[in-house]
Amino acid sequence: MSLRVYNTMTKKKEELVPLKKGRIGMYACGVTVYDLCHIGHARSAVVFDVIYRYLKHKGYDVTYVRNFTDVDDKIIKRAQEEGVGTEEIAARYIEEFYTDMGALGLLAPTVEPKATEHIPEMVALVQQLIEKGHAYEVDGDVYYAVESFPGYGKLSKRSLDEMQAGARVEVDERKRNPLDFALWKATKPGEPSWQSPWGEGRPGWHIECSAMSQKYLGDTLDIHGGGKDLIFPHHENEIAQAEGATGRPFVRFWLHNGFVNIEKEKMSKSLGNFLTIKEIVKSYHPEVVRLFLLSRHYRSPVDFSTQGMEEARRNLERFYKTLAGIDEIIVQTKESDSASEGLSPEEMAVYRRAEEFSTHFEEAMDDDFNTAVAIAHFFELSHDLNRILQDPSPHAPQVLRKGREAFALAGKVLGIFQEDPQDFLEVERQRKIEQLTLTPKEIEKLIKERNEARKNKNWARADEIRNHLASQGIVLEDGPQGTTWRVE
RNA sequence: GGCGGCGUAGCCAAGUGGUAAGGCGACGGUCUGCAAAACCGUUAUUCACCGGUUCAAAUCCGGUCGCCGCCUCCA
């Protein structure tokens, strides 16, 4: 099966053919470390994490680079506000980044370069651009001359003329073209700075990704990605820098993820609806966040809502309930009990579907990482397995084991279903119990009373207790093993 | 103003030429004292609207309406 991806450059799905057979070099724009990460960062990070995982799953030797922008206007501003050094701000939010992204279960990239640790590479690149006539120096600043690069605008599909017509950039007399952007900025008092051929200064934003991707992945990357908002100007500028310097194609496949809205509104600081990852994982298990995000296609906008998150939580719990049921049965059986001998036609059918699961999963993922379809397959498999679980025959473990393997293997690619089912359900239970006004002890007491009433066929009293607890969000389940309770 | 995207059931959401995945909800059934969970079944003759191309269109083309993003820092 061949993997097809949507390429922003060509606006088409194309077969992902790497430059070197069996190897993939991929670069995802990371974060500027001046504040806590929000759900938008989480989406981007999770999307590229899943892409990384899937490429590895397909057997590619992947080099994944994700950078930290640790020198930038916003960091400087923040540092000045707090009266501390920029290094302190950067170090603080890098640490927070690891805490938050670690919580979301992100795999570590191959390399995580920091801009400040690659100043010499950036200076060299800028010098190269000046030599080739793509950049010019004015008063210690260096600007990229967009008119010197014929392909400028090819990724974002705009021409220089169009952009100039609608330009809202401030006029700077020293620039040859208003759209020329800074490669190097002369230092100002109180700002971090480094030595350069143009005097003390610091790099512009776009140059770091060109320099660092080149260093770790070579002149041509297979995949470069980030949020849709980076298409212009960031990625457009990166192309101009990299291709202007090397004269070779910069990126084979451009991948961009869609935005996150909050309750149908654009997320923005002025609206005060910024949701940080920290806040979210306080209320939801990280796998719930992943399931929620991956239930939509990565290129579409997604609306982050309580309703959507609750649905994801309910669904994940359902999956884990199935898995817990399976584990309970197969724990007694031997590893080798996954053969198909002696199965009933019904069991055989499920066995086959479990066997084919990975094929279907890969078909979905091969189609531009269609995680929504992949997750739909999980629902189907889950139904199949629940049917077996309902009334397990002596041969059931053979089928269940097969299904369990499928869940674990494909789940690993999405970064879900990786917890022990019992543990997961217990953690979720505790999380909900904390919200209750009643204590478990009080609940147990009421259940005891209700069971007394039931013994005496006092259905009125029994139902009264059930309804009372239900009004608190507590659901009673009468089973052969007695009565258990759970929180809605 | 320029560029781009989107509009699929009550809701969420796949599907980009071959006759509408999946989830939530709702309804009916199995089970239950009643429930819950789980399972079974039903729930879009139709994909914003109008016109066109085609044997065939949610998918392609033209137009209309509505929503959104980018063009300035942004995942």
Quick overview of this protein structure:
With 488 residues, the protein is an alpha/beta fold. The chain is 49% helix and 16% strand. The chain has a four-stranded parallel β-sheet with strand order 4-3-9-10, with helices on both faces.
C-alpha Rg (nearest Å): 28 Å
Using the coordinates shown, work out and report the CATH topology of the largest domain. Rossmann fold
Instruction: Output the strand order for the largest sheet.
Output: 4-3-9-10
Mean pLDDT comes to 92
- Which parts are unreliable, with pLDDT below 50 for 5 consecutive residues or more? none
Q: What is the 3D shape?
A: elongated
Number of domains: 3
User: Helicity level, as a percent range?
Assistant: 40-55%
Distance between the termini: 42 Å
Q: Which second-level CATH architecture of the largest domain applies?
A: 3-Layer(aba) Sandwich
Q: What is the highest CATH level, the class of the largest domain?
A: Alpha Beta
CATH superfamily of the largest domain: HUPs
Strand proportion, as a percent range, falls in: 15-25%
Q: What's the number of extended β-strand segments?
A: 15
- Specify the biggest β-sheet: 4 strands, parallel
Polypeptide structure, described:
- The protein is of the alpha/beta class and 488 residues long.
- The mean pLDDT is 92.
- The longest helix is centred in the middle third of the chain and has 25 residues, at 306-330.
- Helix 7 links the parallel strand 9 and strand 10.
- Helices cover 49% and strands 16% of the residues.
- The protein has three domains: 19-266, HUPs (Rossmann fold, 3-Layer(aba) Sandwich); 306-425, Four Helix Bundle (Hemerythrin (Met), subunit A) (Up-down Bundle); 436-487, no CATH class.
- Helix 10 (306-330) runs antiparallel to helix 13 and helix 11 (345-366) packs antiparallel against helix 12.
- The strands form five sheets. The protein has a four-stranded parallel β-sheet with strand order 4-3-9-10, sandwiched between helices. It has a four-stranded antiparallel β-sheet with strand order 5-6-7-8. Strands 12-11-13 form a three-stranded mixed β-sheet.
- It binds one RNA strand of 75 nucleotides through strand 3, helix 1, helix 5, helix 7 and helix 10.
